[in-house]
Specification:
Elements: H1 2-34, E1 38-52, E2 58-65, E3 74-80, H2 83-92, E4 97-104, E5 118-126
Antiparallel strand pairs: 1-2, 1-4, 2-3, 4-5
C-alpha cells in the first residue's frame, strides 16, 4: 500500500514540475500571438528577405524607408509566418516600392515564432506615382 502511494506522489510531482510550466508557456504563446498590440503599414524598398533559424525556420526581412531624398533610410525589420506570402514578396523584391501591412505582437516568448514583433500579413507594390498598379 505504501509503495503505491509513493509512486502516485512521484507522478504528481513530475506533472507539477514539468506539466504546469509547459501549459503556462503554451497559454502565454497563444495569447501573445493572438492579441494584436498594434497594426499598421510601412512603405519602402525590400532589401532583404530570408528564411533562417537553426530549429525553427522563420521568414525575416528588412524594408528601407527613405523619408526624403539624400537622407539615410530607416530600416524596418519584420517577420512573415506565411510561406506563400514570403515567396511572393521575395519574387517582387527589386521591382520597386512596396507597402506592407503588419500586426505587432508584443511578448512573444521565443524567437521560434519570429525574430521581430512585427508580423507582415499582406503587401502591395507601389508605382512611382504612389498608386498600386492595376491587376
Amino acid at each position: 500500500q505504501r509503495g503505491f502511494a509513493r509512486r502516485n506522489w512521484g507522478k504528481l510531482t513530475l506533472l507539477v514540475l514539468v506539466g504546469l510550466p509547459l501549459a503556462g508557456f503554451a497559454i502565454w504563446s497563444v495569447i501573445a500571438l493572438s492579441y494584436t498590440y498594434s497594426s499598421g503599414t510601412r512603405t519602402g524598398y525590400v532589401q532583404k528577405i530570408s528564411k533562417k533559424g537553426w530549429l525553427c525556420k522563420t521568414w525575416e526581412g528588412e524594408i528601407a524607408m527613405a523619408t526624403a531624398p539624400g537622407v539615410s533610410p530607416q530600416i524596418f525589420t519584420f517577420t512573415i509566418r506565411d510561406d506563400s506570402l514570403a515567396t511572393a514578396l521575395e519574387q517582387d523584391m527589386g521591382k520597386g516600392r512596396v507597402a506592407v501591412q503588419y500586426d505587432e505582437h508584443r511578448g512573444v516568448p521565443t524567437s521560434c515564432f519570429g525574430d521581430t514583433p512585427y508580423f507582415v500579413t499582406s503587401y502591395r507594390t507601389i508605382t512611382d506615382d504612389g498608386q498600386a498598379p492595376l491587376p
